[in-house]
Specification:
Blueprint (H helix, E strand, L loop, with lengths): L5 E3 L22 E3 L5 H8 L9 E3 L20 E3 L21 E3 L21 E3 L21 E3 L21 E3 L21 E3 L21 E3 L21 E3 L21 E3 L21 E3 L21 E3 L21 E3 L21 E3 L21 E3 L21 E3 L21 E3 L21 E3 L21 E3 L21 E3 L21 E3 L21 E3 L21 E3 L21 E3 L21 E3 L21 E3 L20
Parallel strand pairs: 1-2, 2-3, 3-4, 4-5, 5-6, 6-7, 7-8, 8-9, 9-10, 10-11, 11-12, 12-13, 13-14, 14-15, 15-16, 16-17, 17-18, 18-19, 19-20, 20-21, 21-22, 22-23, 23-24, 24-25, 25-26, 26-27, 27-28
């Protein structure tokens, strides 16, 4: 035991043999982990032991009231972890004897109110974590003597009202986290003396009303977080002197009305967050001088009425967020000068009526979001010049009546979202030139009456969504040329009466959704050619009277939904050829009178739903051949009088629902063979 260097007694409550280990056995111990150990174990491991070589001690979550006296003789100790020792009453003044201590973690120790002044004697201390010490009201002035100090964490010290002026003496301090100190009203002017400070986090200091002008002296500061400082009304002009500042976060500073005019002097600033600054009415023209700015977030600045023309000078800007700026009526023409802009978000700018033609000069733009700009009536023809554009979102632009023909010039466009463009009546024929387009959303374009024939030229299209296009009566025959199409959604196209026979040419199609196409009377026989089709949804196609016999050729079909097809009277016998079919839903097919005997050939079928098939009088005896069937729903089959004896052969059946089968007089005795039920 004399060579023991590390020992872990995590969660240890009792250890009778511990007292048998001599003090000498701990002599070479360097690492000791007593996380969640009982107070008795802590006492036996530390008190009276020779721990001269101990360098790392963890007492995290130990329910101790005081620290063992012998602990302060561990003069080689470098790391002491007391996190979440919630019953610890105080840190004794003898802590100052630990001359080698580099890290001290007392986070979550909510029982004590102050640190001993002897903390200033810890000349080697580099990191001190006090986060969650909710009863801590002040720091001793001696803290300024910690010359090696690099990181101070005071997160959510909610009773801390002030910082000592001596904090400015911490010449090595690099990170200061005061976030969530909601009772802190001001910072000492000495804060400006922290010459090594790189990160200052003041987020959620909701009572902080102003910053000292000395803040501008923090020459090494790279990140300043003031998010959710809801009482902060202004920034000192001296902030412009922060030459190393790369990130400034003012998110949800609701009372901030303006930025200082000298903000443009922040030459190193890369990220500026002003989202939800709802009282911010304008930006200073000097904003255009931020030559390093890459990320600019103005989301939810609901009182912002205009952008300065100088914004076009932001040569490095890659991302610009203006979502929710619903008082913004126009963009300056200079916006087209943002040569590096890759992402531009204008969603929810509900008062924006037009875009400047200069928008077409944004050569690097990849993602353009105009979601819910419901007063936008048209797009400039220059939009076709956006050669790098990959995503164009026009969701809910309900006043948009047409797209410019130049839209077809967007050679890199992969996603076009026109969901709920309810005034859009047609698409330009040039849409077929979008060679890179993979996803096209036209759902709930309720005034769209037809698709251009050129739509068949979209060779890369994988997902096509026409949900809720209730005025669409037919599809062009060219639809069959969409060789890459994997998902085709026609759900709720209630005026669609038929599908073109060319639909069978969609060799890559995996999902076809025709849910609630209530006027669809038949499927073309060519549908059987869809070799890759895995899911076919015909739910609520209430005018559909029959399925083509070719349906049995769908070798990859796994799911077939026919629920509420109230005019469907029978299934073709070819249905039994669907070797991959796992789920067959026929619920509330009121006119379905019988199932074909071939249904027993569905070797992969796991779920069969016949709920509410009130015309069904019997099940075919072949039903017993469904060896993989796990769920059989027959509830509310009012006319079902008996079950075939073969039902006892359903070896995999786990659920049999017969609720409301009021004419069923008895169950076959073989039902007792269903061991998995």
């Amino acid at each position: 035991m004399e060579d023991l260097e590390g020992m872990s007694l995590k969660k240890c409550v009792k250890l009778p043999t511990l007292s048998q280990i001599s003090s000498k056995g701990f002599h070479n111990l360097r690492l000791l982990d007593l996380t969640k150990a009982s107070p008795i174990i802590v006492e036996k491991c530390i008190q009276g032991r020779n721990l001269n070589n101990l360098k790392w001690l963890c007492l995290k979550k130990c329910m101790i009231q005081k620290l063992p006296n012998n602990l302060f003789n561990c003069l080689q100790l470098q790391v002491l972890d007391l996190a979440q020792c919630q019953t610890l009453e105080k840190i004794p003044s003898s802590i100052g004897q630990l001359n080698a201590l580099q890290e001290l973690d007392v986070s979550g120790c909510s029982s004590w109110k102050k640190l001993p002044s002897s903390i200033g004697q810890l000349k080697a201390l580099q990191k001190l974590r006090l986060s969650g010490c909710s009863n801590l009201k002040e720091l001793p002035s001696s803290i300024g003597k910690l010359n090696a100090f690099q990181k101070l964490d005071l997160l959510e010290c909610s009773n801390l009202k002030e910082l000592p002026s001596s904090i400015g003496q911490l010449n090595a301090l690099q990170k200061l986290d005061i976030s969530g100190c909601c009772n802190l009203k001001e910072l000492p002017s000495s804060i400006g003396q922290l010459n090594a400070l790189q990160k200052l986090d003041l987020s959620e200091c909701s009572n902080l009303k102003e910053l000292p002008s000395s803040i501008g002296q923090l020459n090494a500061l790279q990140k300043l977080d003031l998010s959710e400082c809801s009482n902060l009304k202004e920034l000192p002009s001296s902030i412009s002197q922060l030459n190393a500042l790369q990130k400034l976060d003012l998110l949800e500073c609701f009372n901030l009305k303006e930025l200082p005019s000298f903000i443009g002097q922040l030459n190193a600033l890369q990220k500026l967050y002003l989202s939800e600054c709802s009282n911010l009415k304008e930006l200073p023209s000097s904003i255009g001088q931020l030559n390093a700015l890459q990320y600019f977030d103005l989301r939810g600045c609901s009182n912002l009425k205009e952008l300065p023309s100088s914004i076009g000078q932001l040569n490095a800007l890659q991302k610009l967020y203006l979502s929710g700026c619903f008082n913004l009526k126009e963009l300056p023409s200079s916006i087209g000068q943002l040569n590096a802009l890759q992402k531009f978000y204008l969603s929810g700018c509900s008062n924006l009526k037009e875009l400047p033609s200069s928008i077409g000069q944004l050569n690097a733009l990849q993602d353009f979001d105009l979601w819910w700009c419901y007063n936008l009536k048209e797009l400039p023809s220059s939009i076709g010049q956006l050669n790098a554009l990959q995503k164009l979102d026009l969701w809910w632009c309900s006043n948009l009546k047409e797209l410019p023909s130049s839209i077809g010039q967007l050679n890199a466009l992969q996603k076009l979202d026109l969901w709920r463009c309810s005034n859009l009546k047609e698409l330009p024929s040039s849409i077929g030139q979008l060679n890179a387009l993979q996803k096209l959303y036209l759902s709930e374009c309720s005034n769209l009456k037809e698709l251009p024939f050129s739509i068949g030229q979209l060779n890369a299209l994988q997902y096509f969504d026409l949900r809720g296009c209730s005025n669409l009566k037919e599809l062009p025959s060219s639809i069959g040329q969409l060789n890459a199409l994997q998902e085709f959604n026609l759900r709720g196209c209630s005026n669609l009466k038929e599908l073109p026979s060319s639909i069978g040419q969609l060799n890559a199609l995996q999902k076809l959704d025709l849910w609630q196409c209530s006027n669809l009377k038949e499927l073309p026989s060519s549908i059987g050619q869809l070799n890759a089709l895995q899911k076919l949804d015909l739910w609520r196609c209430c005018n559909l009277k029959e399925l083509p016999s070719s349906i049995g050729q769908l070798n990859a079909l796994q799911k077939l939904y026919l629920s509420e097809c109230s005019n469907l009277k029978e299934l073709p016998s070819s249905i039994g050829q669907l070797n991959a079919l796992q789920k067959l839903y026929l619920s509330e097919c009121f006119n379905l009178k019988e199932l074909p005997s071939s249904i027993g050939q569905l070797n992969a079928l796991q779920e069969l739903d016949l709920l509410g098939c009130c015309s069904l009088k019997e099940l075919p005896s072949t039903i017993g051949q469904l060896n993989t069937l796990e769920q059989l729903v027959l509830s509310r089959c009012f006319n079902l009088k008996e079950l075939p004896s073969s039902i006892g052969q359903l070896n995999a059946l786990q659920e049999l629902d017969l609720l409301g089968c009021c004419n069923l007089k008895e169950l076959p005795s073989c039902i007792g063979q269903l061991n998995t039920l």
